[in-house]
Amino acid sequence: MAETDPEGLADRLEDEADDLEHRSRELGQQTDDVSQEWERKRSDPAVPGAPPPAEDEDGAPPTGAPTGKGDDDRA
């Protein structure tokens, strides 16, 4: 059945908005945690399969990195 009480509907929607905001904050925290863990693993040479950072100290991409030109550009 459709909600006919405007105050009840407003309360329910407010509760739903609060729940979504809470879940959004949790997801943001999880994303930050995973990002920090990934960066830690990338900087640890003992972790197999973790590629080095995309740029070295001078901001240049590592040798052999795709440049966005050539074979990678497909029409």
In short:
The protein has 75 residues and is mainly α. It has 1 helix and no strands.
Please give a structural write-up:
- This protein has one helix and no strands.
- It has one helix at 6-43.
- The longest helix is centred in the N-terminal third of the chain and has 38 residues, at 6-43.
Mean pLDDT: 79
Mind summarizing the main beta sheet? none
The secondary-structure class comes to mainly alpha
If you compute it from the alpha carbons, what radius of gyration comes out, rounded to the nearest whole angstrom? Answer: 23 Å
| Portion in beta strands | under 5%
Distance between the termini: 51 Å
Shape: rod-shaped
- Let me know the number of strands: 0
Task: Give short descriptive properties of this protein.
single chain; 75 residues; mainly alpha; 1 helix; 51% helix; 0% strand; rod-shaped
Topology:
Layout: H1 6-43
